[in-house]
Amino acid sequence: MKTRLIFTFFFSIIGVLTFAQQDKQGKKEEKKKDHWKYEPNFMVGLDVLNTGAAFFSDRKLYQGFISSKINGNVHAIAEAGFEKNVYQKNGYDAKVNGPFVKLGGFYMLAKDPENEFNGFYVGGKVAGSFYKQEYMAIPVRGFGGSNSSVAFPSSSQSSFWLEGTIGGRVQLFDSNFYIDVNMQPRYLVYTSKQENIAPMIVPGFGKSSSKFNMGFAWNIAYKF
Asked: pTM value?
């Protein structure tokens, strides 16, 4: 009797361990099936609003972006551009030109059930610009209250800022083209100075008389 009980207990333990091992292997297989895998996808866009406005103003701004869905509602984005501009106000006469780059991501807050690239999004980027700057005139107050100006030669400068993104995308009919419109609140974090004078304009950021600025882009994009 005791022998039978011992064998029964022994084989019961083996059965439980075998079932537990099979269950563990099944969960591992499920995890492998659910494992995230990036599928290459890209959207490339050009800011047609600022490009078009460049023909009618002193500000020549050309910029574009490339983005990719990483996982679910999360997208990565990289932007790059070039700006050439002048500042002539309150006795200042300055000009700048140079490239800028922005890196970051955004999250789709609401999207079309039939097309996950249609919808509204928010996000953020870090940005920087390395540019040439020249002051033709900077106002200075002379002896007895007289006004005069000084000039400084062209120099290389750099500036960095944080930038938010609030916008939306919509597909054009049944094509691979999209309209992407967004606003970009900006905060200037750091800038180099020439002769201890803060820059009047930063390419990609805009006029820097204040640390806060607002940008706007109206893009035509193509999804590959």
From this structure: 0.80
